[in-house]
Amino acid sequence: MTPFLTAWWRMTVADCKVKLENRADFGLIIAGMFFTSVASGATLYLMLGQGGSIAGYSRYELLFMQGFMFLAYVFESSCCNAMYMLETWLKNGNFIRYYLRPVHPLQMLVLERFHPQGLVVAATGLAFCGFALANLPGVFGPAFVLQMVLLLPLAAIVLNAINQMAIASCFFLGEYFPVFHTVGKLTDMSRYPFELFPRIARGAFMLLPLAGIVWWPCQVLLKGQPLLPVLGAMTLIAGGSVLLLMWLWRAGMRRYAGAGG
């Protein structure tokens, strides 16, 4: 494993250098992502006013949920950009090279490329959460940090697994964009309190399970729900999401191999 990690680290450094050579393009991408994120948070902040709330959540709690979503997205933004190339690799035959490696193709897809935009996503998420917590007295403390450390990785796993399942739809449909676009809209809504949505939509979000990205963790972090039941449920959701993703990949790879590449 050590030689593999060493090689991946060298590839990551080289990939970052290549991306940063075109600084204007990289800067525009980062600026667009940053200002779009800030605009969404500012809209909530200004719309609610100092004493306003939505579904029992203050504007600072809503900002924290936005920031938590950004932090959950950091892993995917940093390390999983190669998954967007899956459709191209399937169509041009390059996916065959993954079969010839001693590591599972899904793991190779995750580790293939690193993108420094994840650092900006992390900074944005930390800024949102920090600003919100500074205005939520009595929330931040040692217990809060422990809960955050336990719940955030599980939320990141759920979000990444859902998005990779959407990408893997190209094994069966030939392209992933329609499914990924639809799933992206749904995951984007998961950053808001589920109390906002009708009961049917809430039930659907629970089953998908979009509740495991932001809503359940924030019930513990912001609303004082006991940690252990939510941690147990989140662990089952994360594990189930990964197993479902692996099953979907195996089914897709069998179909791809059966079609002769």
Description:
This protein is mostly helical. The chain contains 13 helices and 2 strands. Strands 1-2 form a two-stranded antiparallel ribbon. A hairpin with a 2-residue loop joins strand 1 and strand 2 (57-58). The radius of gyration is 20 Å and the shape is globular. The two termini are 29 Å apart. The relative contact order is 0.12.
What's a concise summary of this model?
This protein has 13 helices and 2 strands, in the order ααββααααααααααα.
Notable traits:
261 residues; mainly alpha; two-stranded antiparallel sheet; 13 helices
Q: Which strands sit side by side, in order, in the main sheet?
A: 1-2
* Overall pLDDT level: 79
Please tally the β strands and state the result: 2
Largest sheet data: 2 strands, antiparallel
- Give me the number of helical elements: 13
| Beta-strand residue percentage | under 5%
**Helix share, percent:** over 70%
Question: Which stretches of 5+ consecutive residues score pLDDT under 50?
Answer: none
Radius of gyration: 20 Å
- What order do the helices and strands follow? HHEEHHHHHHHHHHH
In terms of structural class, how would the helical and strand content be classed? mainly alpha
Distance between the termini: 29 Å
SSE layout and pairing:
Blueprint lengths: L1 H20 L1 H26 L4 E2 L2 E2 H21 L6 H7 L3 H4 L5 H7 L5 H18 L7 H26 L2 H4 L3 H13 L9 H9 L7 H7 L5 H32 L3
Helix pairs in contact: 2-3, 2-7, 3-7, 3-8, 8-10, 8-13
